Each structure stands twice: as C-alpha cells, then as structure tokens.
C-alpha cells in the first residue's frame, strides 16, 4: 500500500495555477457605479451606432475599406499613403495611457477597457435573468430542473445574440454595414466576413461570459507592466489600514468599540470585486480600479454612521501623511508632449491637401534634341488622387521663363484613390539656358477645385560642353 505522504498533492506544483473559483460580483450602487454605467453606455453606444452613420453623399461615415485601400473617417478619406496619421494616433494613445496611468492608476481598465465594458453588460444580463448574487449562487448549487435549464439557457441565448451583434458590428467597420446586414439576414456572406463575424462574436462570448476576470489576471499584459508607471503619488484604490484595523464585527447603532477600527469585517468589498481580491490586503495587480469596493464600503460606513473613505482613491504618500501631490514633473512632461502631438496632428489634418505628385526623370536619357531644335528633358509625373471623388488635373511648368511643356498644360483624369503615371516633356531653346542645371517646378491643379494643388521640384539638365 502507498503511504499517505505519497498520496498528498505536490503543493509546489499545484501553486503554479490555482483552480478557478467562480466569482459572482455583488451589485453595488454609488457614484463610481454610476460612472461605470455612463462609460458603458458611451463606449458601447459609440461602438454600435458609429457604423450606421452616413454622410451627406451617402457614404458610410466610418469605414476602413481594406479591399479598396481607403479609410472613410467622417469628412476625410485617408489612403495607405496616410499611414503616418495612424502611427501618430498610436503614439498619442500610448502617451495618453501613460499619462492617465501615472495620474489615476488603472482607470482605463476599470471604466473603458472592452473586456470590462462587455463583462459589465454580461453581468447585468446575468442578474436580470438569474437574480441577485445570492440567487445566482443558490441556482448554481441546485440540481438541474426545468427552471434552472430555462434560466441558464436563456442567459446564454441572450449572450450569444449580443455576441453575434457585436461580431457583425465589428465587421461593419470594414465592410459596408447595411449591405453586410442584408447579406447576414439572407445568409449570403463571403467566407472572410463569415469567419470574422463568428470569430469576434465567440471571442466576446468567451471572454465576457466565461473567462471574465481570468482575462485581466492571466491574459492581459497591461496588468503586468502597470507598476512601471506607478509611483507614490499615483492615485490608487487603497484601504486605510490605520483607520480600519483592528477589524471586527459589531452591532449597528452601537458606539464603536475602543479596541476596534472602522472596518466591521463584513466582507462586502470582496463580494463586490469583479476579480475576487481583498483590497484590504494592499494593492494587487488583479485590481482593475473599478471602485466597486469604494461604493459598497461607503454604503456600509453610512449605515454605521462612520465617515466615508475607509476605502478610497488616494496615494501612498497621502496615506502615510506626506500629502497629496498629483501634479508633478512627469505629469507636466507627458501632458506637454501629448498636447503638442495632438495639436500637430490636428493641424496637419486641417491643412492636408488630398492630392500628391511625384516626379522622376526618364532614366534612359538625361536630355535630347527635339524635332524643333529645342533641348528636351522627359519626366514621369505620378499623380495620386487621395480625394473621395475623381478629378481632372492640369500640369503646368513654373520657374523656367521661356521653357514650354509639350503638350502645353497637359490634362490627366484620375479616379478617386487611383495613381496615374504620365510623361511630360520640358523643352527649352539654347538661348534661354543659362547653366547646365536649372531648377524647375511642375505643378498639378484640379480643374474643378483650385485648392487641390500640389507641386514638385525637379532639374532641367543641359549638355556640359555647352558651357565650357
């Protein structure tokens, strides 16, 4: 027979991954709960509504049309050549995250992260179908009955419907959503549209319905490197240990025992936490700063007729009596850089001209003599129409008095989002050529809109023996 010692689990190995304990967050009410509801309404409202907005010309206001390589962003149409704006947006987002984290900790996680937002909605659906936290726990432990099947099954049906709507909306940012919806209803989708609708839908269903806090604890990298952006003046959710300890239960309405702190050890802060931690154990990387524990603790303090703020947004230095210093040098540096980048990007978008021109010389020959005896240089002009409608462009020559274009004022029609190459010949007679290399400018202008103008510099080359 094996000894009892051999039958014991290897605690060192078991500790590598703790078995998940089902969490049923308690519903709380308070100022931070209202902020979360407002942020959920704002973010999901924008997510589901934006693809359906159309501009005056009938095009979808927000559409990243990958097959046609153009991106409609309200009044603007951007093209692959405008990826610099995407890079700028990513840099601004990263700096904004650094700034907000340095000031208020994981505010993004608690109020705006997609995982948090959709989990809040799924939890709300769960409460509406199964009831309060206590009823959910009781239902989970009860044997399978018709009522349990109806409630559990109904909850998952609603989750799946919302998830599919989410997946459809996601694809609607990349494929015209009205056509996509009709195709979805008629089940006439393309293979990639079908894949992404169900992939994103089931990802939403799995992450917000099943994994929940596991995504924040084990999968999200932000939880791991957030501490790099924290310092002792960063606002975090903290339990006031000096005021709260020693903890102990007591009757409501009685004077506070002299040997007890304000914490009555009710455990409601743990029940309210969506990741299941005890904030009284100190700051932990699992904390997503949703402030549910603050709301529920303040409610308990009100009932006990104690001051609020036993659990609150504060800083390490403030708890230690060193004062609250939110605005510090790093905050001003982040803010200045962020503001500068935002202003630069907005200014660049405002003055952006949706047309581009690029000039390259004919590599076969630097110069040649034309039939009329003039010296001729040949250039390839590449015109990029980045506007959302077609234009006809006129090419003109500047900076070389007496020189001519052949043909004069050449016209080129370019469809929206297209790039057209055309050849331009610049001719000059011997008497107006003063040096071997002469600076010239080729300008393109839309015939229907003079504001759509761009130009590019080039050089007119003449033989070297002319000037010896």
Structure description:
The protein has 17 helices and 14 strands. 42% of the residues lie in helices and 19% in strands. Helix 6 (114-130) packs across helix 10. The chain is an alpha+beta fold and 468 residues long. Strands 6, 7, 8, 10 and 12 form a 5-stranded antiparallel sheet that branches. A 4-stranded antiparallel sheet has the order 11-9-13-14, with no helix packed on it. 23% of the residues are buried. Strand 13 and strand 14 (449-461) form a beta hairpin. It has helices at 4-7, 11-14, 31-49, 83-104, 107-111, 114-130, 133-141, 146-172, 177-185, 191-211, 213-219, 222-225, 241-244, 268-272, 292-304, 316-319, 329-351; strands at 62-65, 70-73, 76-78, 236-239, 311-314, 355-361, 368-369, 375-385, 391-398, 404-406, 410-414, 419-428, 437-446, 449-461. Among the domains are: 20-82 and 91-227, no CATH class; 355-467, Immunoglobulins (Immunoglobulin-like, Sandwich). The model is unreliable at 1-14 (pLDDT under 50).
Put the structure in a nutshell.
Helix content is 42%, strand content 19%. Among the domains are: 200 residues, no CATH class; 113 residues, Immunoglobulin-like (Sandwich), CATH 2.60.40.10. Strands 6, 7, 8, 10 and 12 form a 5-stranded antiparallel sheet that branches. A 4-stranded antiparallel sheet has the order 11-9-13-14, with no helix packed on it.
Task: Based on the model shown, name its key terms.
four-stranded antiparallel β-sheet, disordered N terminus, 17 helices, elongated, five-stranded antiparallel β-sheet
């Amino acid at each position: 027979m094996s000894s009892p010692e051999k039958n014991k689990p290897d605690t060192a190995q078991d500790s590598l991954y703790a078995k998940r304990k089902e969490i049923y967050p308690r519903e709380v009410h308070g100022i931070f709960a209202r902020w979360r509801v407002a942020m959920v309404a704002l973010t999901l409202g924008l997510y589901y509504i934006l693809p359906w907005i159309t501009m005056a010309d009938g095009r979808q206001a927000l559409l990243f049309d990958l097959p046609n390589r153009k991106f409609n962003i309200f009044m603007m149409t951007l093209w692959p050549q405008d990826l610099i704006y995407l890079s700028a947006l990513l840099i601004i987002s990263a700096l904004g995250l650094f700034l907000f984290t340095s000031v208020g900790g994981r505010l993004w996680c608690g109020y705006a992260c997609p995982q948090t937002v959709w989990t809040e909605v799924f939890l709300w659906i769960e409460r509406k179908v199964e009831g309060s936290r206590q009823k959910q726990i009781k239902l989970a432990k009860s044997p399978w009955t018709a009522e349990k099947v109806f409630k559990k099954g109904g909850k998952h049906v609603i989750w799946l419907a919302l998830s599919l709507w989410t997946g459809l909306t996601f694809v609607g940012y990349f494929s015209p959503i009205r056509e996509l919806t009709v195709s979805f209803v008629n089940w006439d989708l393309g293979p990639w549209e079908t894949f992404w609708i169900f992939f994103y839908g089931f990802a939403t269903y799995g992450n917000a319905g099943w994994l929940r806090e596991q995504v924040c604890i084990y999968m999200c990298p932000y939880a791991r490197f957030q501490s790099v952006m924290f310092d002792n003046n960063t606002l975090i959710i903290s339990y006031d240990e000096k005021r709260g300890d020693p903890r102990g239960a007591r009757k409501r309405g009685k004077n506070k025992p002299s040997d007890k702190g304000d914490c009555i050890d009710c455990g409601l802060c743990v029940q309210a936490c969506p990741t299941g931690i005890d904030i009284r154990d100190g700051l932990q990387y699992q904390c997503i700063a949703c402030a549910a524990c603050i709301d529920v603790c303040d409610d308990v303090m009100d009932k006990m007729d104690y001051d609020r703020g036993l659990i609150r947004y504060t800083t390490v230095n403030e708890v230690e009596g060193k004062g609250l210093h939110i605005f510090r040098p790093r905050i001003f540096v982040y803010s200045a850089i962020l503001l500068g980048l935002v202003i630069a990007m907005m200014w660049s978008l405002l003055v952006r001209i949706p047309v581009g021109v690029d000039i390259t010389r004919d590599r076969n020959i630097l110069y040649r003599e034309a039939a009329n005896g003039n010296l001729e240089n040949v250039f390839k002009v590449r015109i990029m129409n980045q506007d959302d409608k077609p234009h006809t462009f006129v090419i003109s020559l500047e900076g070389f008095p007496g020189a001519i274009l052949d043909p004069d004022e050449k016209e080129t029609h370019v469809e929206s989002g297209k790039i057209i190459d055309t050849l331009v010949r610049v001719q000059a007679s011997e008497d107006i050529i003063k040096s071997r290399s002469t600076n010239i400018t080729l300008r393109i202008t839309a015939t229907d809109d003079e504001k759509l103008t761009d130009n590019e510099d080039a050089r007119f080359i003449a033989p070297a023996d002319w000037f010896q």
